[in-house]
Design a protein that fits this description.
Layout: E1 3-4, E2 7-10, H1 14-25, E3 30-33, E4 45-48, E5 52-55, E6 61-62, H2 68-75, E7 82-85, E8 89-93, E9 96-99, H3 100-104, H4 108-122, H5 126-130, H6 137-144, H7 148-162, H8 172-186, E10 192-195, H9 200-212, E11 216-218, E12 223-229, E13 232-238, E14 256-259, E15 262-265, H10 287-296, E16 300-310, E17 320-323, E18 333-336, H11 338-341, E19 351-360, H12 361-365, H13 367-384, H14 388-391, E20 392-406, E21 428-430, H15 441-460
Parallel strand pairs: 1-14, 2-3, 2-15, 3-11, 8-17, 15-21
Antiparallel strand pairs: 4-5, 6-10, 7-10, 8-9, 12-13, 13-14, 16-19, 16-20, 17-18, 18-19
Helix pairs in contact: 1-9, 1-15, 2-9
The structure holds flavin-adenine dinucleotide.
Flavin-adenine dinucleotide (FAD) binds next to α1, β6, β20 and α15.
Length: about 450
């Protein structure tokens, strides 16, 4: 006998848990299936022996208590506990760290220009912003200012917001949206906060809200495929157990089927073909959608970086660290010290440092290029933090494809992102940072969860 639910959500990242909690609390019996042994997806945090708590890569949350992720938690009756906000952005320029304020002091004309631009952005309507979704950041800047300082200031902030290696290729609409939200809510172009206990501080409240409402979270289970009856969703098949040491060989059991009239794929666009038939001949999804899917699934960017546990700190201020182009790596750099925001993530007297460089996906697939870039990046890190080698207790490198959803370039943001409602099929939905939703990545995933739950409840609500 197949198990029956009102809704099955595939994936327990921020989007999947958000949709699950909203549906369950609205009265839909919901199952959330996650292939990892822990919830959180790209926002997981891990404990490392000796008292360290480490996130997957460098993570700060734009807008903190005023963010869509905080709002999502509140909507399901929970609060995220925020450690603190970043005080400023420090940029590595000409061999030293400079705060944005130091940079801006360059000339009174530049300050006037920046203030004028900020005022203009803060007053933009949604329609004004959408009009720039097809415009590159370069085009927008060219039409707005000749001040080199203003261009650099806005480009640095834009790079941090969008994680696109060539800052001028970013979508103006996306940057303007994030800047407007920050200016209206926090009176600054970009503000970022760190949750107490790392990124799980955002995930755990959603997970608790879902389970406390009676929802079922199935960890360590992979969904094999979404099942259809005609073009309507019938449920999901869970991966079969294997009797062979070679994964995928000699299946033991029949697939375990879970029936539900609603299935939400809360996984990134590039993972969809793992659970959905995307062949134009046989898919329930229409051909126009599949063409768009084919175009977009490689439109993402990557991060490479070092997570470093230090016996003694090399930088102790709660700031965001950045560089538009590192001397050796030749890439944009981002970094911060999580233990300067929440001392609880490192043992007493020690310090945790997160760093990354924004790269193209191809550079991650090429392992020799990846090693070359990581080597150069360490040379840059040695110059940014003199004496670091003597203080390293442990360090590991990481690489990540698809860090922030779709590369937020013109035509790939706002209404141009795939809708949360799947066309051509009854009961199939999407949620996450690669679908409809705006804002810095994890916040856009939170917004998409909210939009997705509203669409589902409007059609299948109790
Ligand atoms: C290194 C790094 C740094 C980042 N830094 C920032 C930052 O500073 N600020 C910011 O706003 N955002 C940042 N992000 C982006 C942010 O983490 C993501 O936008 C957000 O976590 C996306 O959530 P999601 O729910 O859409 O997807 P995910 O978190 O990817 O969740 C999808 C889930 O689906 C599961 N899944 C996939 N296939 C199956 C299957 N067949 N069956 C069952 N489960 C399945 C996956 O295991 C995963 O748990 C960063 C991301 C990375 C990786």
């Amino acid at each position: 006998m197949a198990e029956k639910y009102d809704a099955v959500v595939i994936g327990a990242g921020i989007a999947g848990l958000g949709v699950s909690a909203l549906l369950q609390r609205a009265g839909l019996k919901t199952l959330c299936v996650e292939r990892d042994s822990q919830a959180g997806g790209r926002m997981q945090s891990f404990d490392i022996e000796g008292g360290w708590r480490v996130d997957i890569g460098l993570h700060l949350a734009e807008l903190g208590d005023a963010s869509s992720s905080s709002e999502l938690a509140r909507q399901v009756g929970k609060e995220v506990s925020w450690a603190r906000f970043s005080e400023t952005v420090e940029m590595f320029r000409a061999g030293r760290w400079q705060t944005l304020e130091e940079m801006i002091i360059a000339s009174p004309e530049d300050i006037d220009e920046i203030k004028k631009m900020m005022k203009g952005i803060a007053a933009m309507s949604d329609a004004d912003i959408e009009a720039y979704d097809l415009t590159s950041w370069k085009q927008w800047l060219d039409g707005k200012t000749t001040s080199a300082v203003a261009r650099e200031l806005f480009s640095v902030n834009g790079m941090i917001m969008t994680t696109v290696p060539d800052t001028l290729e970013m979508s103006a609409g996306e940057i303007l949206y994030i800047a407007r939200e920050n200016l209206q809510k926090k009176r600054n172009v970009l503000t970022a906060a760190y949750p107490v206990g790392g990124m799980m501080g955002v995930i755990t409240p959603l997970k608790e809200a879902f389970e406390e409402a009676g929802g079922e979270l199935m960890l360590g289970t992979e969904v094999d495929s979404v099942l259809f009856e005609g073009s309507n969703v019938r449920g999901v098949a869970l991966k079969k157990g294997s009797a062979s040491p070679y994964p995928g060989w000699f299946y033991m059991d029949d697939a375990r089927v879970v029936e539900a009239p609603v299935v939400v794929c809360a996984l990134p666009l590039w993972d969809l073909d793992g659970v959905l038939d995307v062949s134009p001949e046989t898919s329930v999804l229409p051909e126009w959608w599949l063409k768009r899917y084919d175009d977009l699934k490689f439109e993402t960017t990557g991060l490479i970086g070092y997570t470093i546990g230090l016996k003694e700190t090399v930088y102790d201020r709660p700031n965001f660290l950045s560089a538009l182009c590192l001397d050796h790596t030749g890439k944009p750099f981002q970094g911060f010290v999580p233990s300067a925001f929440d001392p609880g993530v490192a043992p007493e007297g020690k310090s945790l440092l997160q760093t990354d460089c924004v790269v193209e996906v191809d550079q991650i697939f090429d392992k020799f290029e990846l090693e070359r870039l990581l080597g150069l990046m360490w040379t840059d890190i040695q110059e940014m933090f003199p004496g670091i080698d003597d203080r390293v207790e442990w360090k590991f490198t990481y690489k990540c494809i698809g860090c922030d959803g779709l590369a937020r370039k013109p035509g790939q943001v706002g209404m141009f992102k795939p809708d949360v409602v799947a066309p051509g099929s009854g009961g199939l939905y999407f949620a996450g940072d690669t679908y409809r939703g705006r804002g810095l990545a994890l916040n856009s995933a939170a917004i998409s969860a909210k939009i997705c739950a509203e669409e589902i409840l409007g059609r299948h609500g109790p």
